[in-house]
Amino acid sequence: MRLPIATPAEVDIALVGIPFDGGTTNRTGARHGPREIRNQSSLVRRVHHQTMRSPFDLVRIADCGDAPVNPVDPAESLELIAGFYRAIAEAGAVPLTAGGDHLVTLPVLRGLSKGEPRGLIHFDAHSDTYDDFFGNRYNHGTPFRRAVEEGLLDPRRMVQIGLRGAISDAANYDFAKAEGIRLIFIEDLMARGVSDVMAEAREIVGRRETYVTFDIDVIDPAFAPGTGTPEIGGVSTFQAQALVRELAGVDIVGADLVEVSPPLDPSGMTALTGATMLFELLCVAAEASALRQPV
Fold this sequence. Notes:
eight-stranded parallel beta sheet, alpha/beta, Arginase, Chain A, 10 helices, 295 residues
């Protein structure tokens, strides 16, 4: 977004990349997401055309670089990422992250943890609450099950929006349902509309600290084909923007946009979509951060 480079101690919101896709189970390439999202974000302008406000005028924002990863050792990468975000939290900054596959949200939540479980608003075609894939418990299909088990998230304050697609086993959603996670499938979203669904989401998380995670595959692959696990029948880019704008008023303590795989979309449109959605997330996160600033 043509922003300066800075350290987390110098900003209120830290833009960060996590170039990691070691948790991918099928099509790879999300490790290149941060680089191309940064490239496409040079097209982002300062003022939101609906609110007529600029997040850059509300709080201090800068690019704080990439979290360190080990591309051949996922376990070490989880530790490195968590440590990087722990430093961001200690500096008092709110991280806004470009992934990376969806496993990266788990170490981010670990690094930001203050010991109390937080709420989660999760936009995705997939629940990502599997127990394992091929015997592996740490991949992009399992982060939110691990986060609940580790006490990082309160399942009663979690809502997953846009779920769809054939599943490998009828029991795939059993954990989420048993824990009380609110599952909103795409059919429900389309029938009820964005405003009604997001009013419910805001009620679920309440006014306490909430993390927001946006998987690009919640958007229909007609608009964003460059992702590892595309599912047809998703939301349009217009609906995606409307969903994020309805986060206004949520106490956002961190957010990410994940699963953009530039090699799977040479046109660059998926990365541009990712950069634009990051701007939408930045606008609501900046409003939340400004409210926390001392008068």
